[in-house]
Task: structure prediction
Amino acid sequence: MTLVNFNGDEIHQLLTNQKLKERLFSKIKPVISDYELQGINVDFEGIPRADRGTVLNSFMHDLTEYLHREIAGSEVSFAVPPVEWGGWSFAGLADACDYLFIMGYSFYGSWSETSGPSALLTGGPYNLTNSMTTQFKSVLRDHPEKLILGVPYFGNKWETRSMVAYAPVVAHISALRYLITYESGLAHGFKWDSRSQTSWTAYRQDEHIYQVWFDTDSSLGLKYDLAEAYELKGVGMWALGYDGSRTELWDELQRRYGTSGFPATPELSDFRIVCYPNPAHDRITITLKLNTPGNLIVTLINQHGQVLSQRETTLRPRPV
Result:
């Protein structure tokens, strides 16, 4: 289960109001139990600086104790930034829960004045190597097994003033899933940035210059090396599914960790398409290619498992 809130005022209330906290805990328990989940990841972003230390750590300690007591074997984790931007106590937070998921991305984004990688391994004042050696130094000293390194399955596209790396930005176009960024590399040629050890591409179109920065299995592999070198609990990503039908990211995980590999293509008679938020558009188009006629039942289900709508239609192959 993921508990998400990006509103600082609401987060402050949850962290400091005992009645709200107890009510929240009581609502978390049945969700984990009913869906037979392994635990919860708390993703609070925009936390007021004054609440990032003792207040947050106390909340997570209480949540962890509550779930450990109520649901045997449950796990509690918290999503943390890769840099201690002020007010945090990462060591205390690690003590308060089972794991910290380091959101090791968004070093560059829509706010950036120059183009650049979402997740730098090296280079610049802040990068993932710095996260290990400096930002989480105290946690690594005592509890490396409590850290999970999160990596991006997405990148960013900018219009820039030149073709060179880290060029001044004209405009941020959008955050793009791996599937789209990789296709940009195939179309315009892959470049390698030795400063950050990530992939990117640049091209001209209609008198404009565009740059797309993204991770591939090669750059992600170097980040996995980092996690292994510091004996972290493991790695994670935002987000599974952003690679679409491509297999190289699954293959890299298979090679390193012996996972089951890329999921098998489901039979047409029973399949599910999961649409993830951030980055996403408010409209999604799904195209099916059929060899034989068939009935299609489309069921729209929200993130809580509730059926929002259901529609049935007959599909026929398009004449050749």
